[in-house]
Write a structure and sequence with these properties.
The protein is an alpha/beta fold. The chain is built from eleven helices and twelve strands. The chain has helices spanning 13-27, 42-50, 58-63, 78-86, 97-112, 128-135, 169-186, 200-203, 206-215, 228-240, 274-285, and strands spanning 2-5, 32-35, 54-56, 68-71, 90-93, 118-122, 142-144, 159-163, 192-194, 218-222, 244-247, 263-268. The protein has a four-stranded parallel sheet with strand order 1-12-10-11, with helices on both faces. A four-stranded parallel sheet has the order 3-2-4-5, sandwiched between helices. It has a four-stranded parallel sheet with strand order 7-6-8-9, with helices on both faces. Bound molecules: iron/sulfur cluster. Iron/sulfur cluster is lined by residues 12-15, 73, 96, 98-99, 165-166, 199, 201-202, 270.
Length: 289
């Protein structure tokens, strides 16, 4: 049985940079806190915690003083920086440069229209990147999770539309089309400004992943359950190969998936470490099928 790894999988550069920064500080024996999970992958978080990193939530962050705290690639709202200043916290800011640029863009648009610009963001309300972006507009962003949510938009006002970086192109297009359709009915078709804020590191993989998923009899996709891009990329695999399985840990692998297969492909999300993907490969090879 052939078992191959998708060489476009593994961390995106934003996540890689945040993890490298954490490792560098931990090696210097610096007491390091990370605000929220550094990456949506439990096993990678555990590995870094074993090296000494402490993951804290926002309530704990408000309580600590004089410590060093790493901000992950998703970015943060302005109040995180204010709390750090007040509590003499040294911030190691690993906000991905793409997210940083996106935050500035939203902030500038919002402020340039006297805080009256209607900012609409396609994304998951509870996702840290969305919270960080919404914070740039003093939480005046209309977050749209699905087509039905466009009811919250005022169609008599200009719309500045953005997407969370890890959303799928197809779903973003559905939102764009639904807004355009509603605008036609209200005769306000010129009031939409669509911004392409999807991350190439994710959507650039879509076509390559489709080809990869088709090549094998069985496809294993490795990702944390709460990874937004992981779920999106897995759906692509599933649509191309019905024998696709989503796993987060090697203990979830079942020998019977491979019993009649001659080829297996393994891929993962932008938050999946390569060492975990390699462990999955080794476990499948250990079945000696
Ligand atoms: S997915 Fe893209 S925007 Fe998000 S952290 Fe990775 S490189 Fe940055």
């Amino acid at each position: 049985m052939i078992v191959e790894i998708d060489n476009t999988s593994g961390f995106c550069f934003g996540v890689k940079a945040a993890i490298n920064k954490a490792e560098e500080l931990l090696l210097q024996n610096i007491e390091l806190y990370c605000l929220g999970q550094i990456v949506h992958n439990e096993m990678e978080v555990e590995r870094l915690e074993e090296l000494g990193m402490k993951t804290i939530d926002y309530e704990e962050f408000k309580e600590i003083k004089n410590k060093t705290v790493l901000l992950r690639a998703h970015g943060e709202p302005p109040e995180t920086y204010e709390i750090a200043k007040k509590n003499n916290i040294t911030l190691i800011d690993a906000t991905c440069p793409i997210v940083d640029k996106f935050q500035k863009k939203i902030k500038t648009t919002f402020e340039s229209q006297n805080n009256l610009a209607q900012i609409v963001l396609f994304g998951k309300k509870s996702h840290p990147e969305v919270i960080g972006l919404n914070g740039q507009t003093n939480y005046n962003t209309i977050v749209v999770e699905k087509v039905e949510d466009i009811e919250e938009i005022d169609f008599n006002k200009p719309i500045n539309l953005y997407s969370q970086t890890t959303k799928s192109v197809e779903n973003y297009n559905l939102i764009i089309e639904a807004i355009k359709e509603t605008q036609k009915k209200t005769e306000n078709e010129n009031l939409l400004n669509v911004n392409n804020t999807l991350c190439r590191q994710v959507y650039g993989r879509n076509d390559l992943l489709k080809e990869f998923a088709k090549k094998y009899e069985v496809l294993i996709f490795v990702s944390g359950k709460n990874s937004s891009n992981g779920n999106m990329l897995f759906n692509i695999c599933k649509s191309e190969n019905k024998n696709s399985y989503f796993i987060s840990d090697i203990s979830e692998i079942k020998k019977e998936w491979f019993e009649n297969a001659d080829s297996v492909g393994i891929s993962g999300a932008t938050s999946t470490p390569m060492w975990l993907i390699e462990m999955v490969r080794d476990k499948i090879l250990s079945f000696n099928l």
